[in-house]
C-alpha cells in the first residue's frame, strides 16, 4: 500500500461529501501501481466527469502509476479554455 493526497475541484466535491470523504488534502491509502483512472472509478465517478488530473502539480495521463506521497487533484470539465491551455490540460494544435 501507498498513501496519496487527494483533492477534488468544483462539482466533483459533492460526490465526495456525500460519501463522507474530504475533498481537500485527503490522505488515501491505495494499492501500489494504482492510476488516477482507477481512483476515479473507485470514488464512483464516470470517466467523463473528470477531464484531467494533476499529479504533483503537473497535468499527467490518467494511466500514470502513482507513487507513495503523490498529490493528485481531479479537475472536472468546464474549466475555461484559456486556463486549460495554461495549465497544460490542452495542447495548442500547430
Secondary structure layout plus pairing:
Layout: E1 2-8, H1 12-18, E2 26-30, H2 36-42, E3 52-55, E4 58-60, E5 71-75, H3 81-87
Parallel strand pairs: 1-5
Antiparallel strand pairs: 1-2, 3-4, 3-5
Give structural notes.
A five-stranded mixed beta sheet has the order 2-1-5-3-4. The chain has a single domain (2-87), classed as Beta-grasp domain (Ubiquitin-like (UB roll), Roll), CATH 3.10.20.30. The longest helix has 7 residues, at 12-18. Helix content is 22%, strand content 26%. A hairpin with a 2-residue loop joins strand 3 and strand 4. It has 94 residues and is α+β, with helices and mostly antiparallel strands.
Which features would summarize this protein structure in a list?
single chain, five-stranded mixed β-sheet, globular, 5 strands, 94 residues, Ubiquitin-like (UB roll), alpha+beta, 26% strand, 22% helix
CATH topological fold name? Ubiquitin-like (UB roll)
Residue fraction in strands: 25-35%
CATH architecture group name: Roll
* Distinct helical segment count: 3
Q: Round the Cα radius of gyration to an integer and report it.
A: 13 Å
| SSE pattern, N- to C-terminal | EHEHEEEH
The gross shape turns out to be: globular
What structural category do the secondary elements indicate? alpha+beta
CATH superfamily: Beta-grasp domain
Distance between the termini: 42 Å
Strand order of the largest sheet: 2-1-5-3-4
Largest sheet: 5 strands, mixed
* Number of E-type strands: 5
Q: How many distinct domains?
A: 1
Spans of at least 5 consecutive residues whose pLDDT stays below 50 are none
Mean pLDDT: 87
Fraction in helix? 10-25%
Assigned CATH class: Alpha Beta
Amino acid at each position: 500500500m501507498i498513501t496519496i493526497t487527494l483533492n477534488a475541484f468544483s462539482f466533483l466535491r459533492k460526490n465526495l461529501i456525500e460519501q463522507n470523504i474530504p475533498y481537500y488534502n485527503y490522505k488515501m491509502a491505495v494499492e501500489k501501481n494504482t492510476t488516477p483512472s482507477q481512483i476515479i472509478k473507485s470514488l464512483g465517478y464516470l470517466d467523463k466527469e473528470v477531464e484531467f488530473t494533476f499529479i504533483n502539480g503537473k497535468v499527467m495521463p490518467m494511466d500514470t502509476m502513482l507513487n507513495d506521497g503523490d498529490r493528485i487533484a481531479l479537475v472536472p470539465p468546464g474549466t475555461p479554455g484559456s486556463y486549460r491551455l495554461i495549465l497544460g490540460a490542452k495542447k495548442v494544435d500547430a
